[in-house]
């Protein structure tokens, strides 16, 4: 069994990473969905797990890739910021591209709103914004995967909300 943390849209809150890591000390990985790559650079060496980042539309000059694929316990995750697929208007392009890559799950941010949707053959998961939510409090995601079982998705409030 693996636990994956998912953060997006930190927009200047480097402490978001360390607070989430401290709250989840046994997590196996962290996937960062962009708009805060400079925040991640400030704290990445202090994080106790591997980090899989992509850049967002506000990460000017970032060297992180625009998309990624990673597998945990037989589940293939496709992860992007989401702006390149116009996710504020429709999830269709994101789902289609995830399916083309053979992904089981597509992780995305950009909207600053947590969401979990099954579309066609792919699960779409947005953790919300870790710093500037568009509704409610700042959130992050936690996914538990176990070989042969469906992933469990959670939206959680950011610890020690500032």
Automatic annotation (TrEMBL):
Cofactor entry: a divalent metal cation
Domain Calcineurin-like phosphoesterase positions: 4-147
To which protein family does this belong?
A: Belongs to the metallophosphoesterase superfamily. YfcE family.
Please provide the record's keywords in A-Z order: Metal-binding
Would you say which domain of life the source belongs to? Bacteria
Q: Answer yes or no on keyword ATP-binding.
A: no
Entries under Gene3D superfamilies matching the protein: 3.60.21.10
Enzyme class, broadest EC rank: hydrolase
Xref: Pfam families:
Metallophos_2
Task: Report the protein name in the record.
Answer: Phosphoesterase
Return the EC number.
3.1.4.-
| InterPro entries reported for this sequence | Calcineurin-like_PHP_lpxH, Metallo-depent_PP-like, MPP_YfcE, Phosphodiesterase_MJ0936/Vps29
**Ranges in coiled-coil conformation:** none
Annotated GO MF terms? hydrolase activity; metal ion binding
């Amino acid at each position: 069994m693996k636990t994956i943390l998912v953060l997006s849209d930190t927009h200047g809150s480097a402490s978001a990473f360390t607070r989430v890591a401290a709250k989840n000390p046994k997590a196996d990985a962290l996937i960062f969905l962009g708009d805060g790559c400079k925040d991640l650079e400030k704290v990445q060496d202090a994080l106790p797990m591997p980090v899989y980042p992509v850049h967002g539309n506000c990460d000017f000059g970032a060297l992180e890739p625009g998309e990624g694929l990673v597998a945990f316990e037989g589940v293939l995750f496709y992860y992007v910021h989401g702006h390149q697929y116009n996710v504020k208007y429709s999830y269709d392009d994101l789902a289609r591209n995830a399916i083309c890559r053979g992904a089981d799950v597509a992780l995305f941010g950009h909207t600053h709103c947590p969401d979990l949707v099954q579309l066609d053959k792919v699960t779409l998961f947005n953790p919300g914004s870790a710093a500037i939510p568009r509704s409610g409090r700042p959130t992050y995601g936690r996914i538990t995967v176990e070989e042969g079982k469906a992933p469990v998705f959670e939206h959680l409030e950011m610890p020690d909300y500032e």
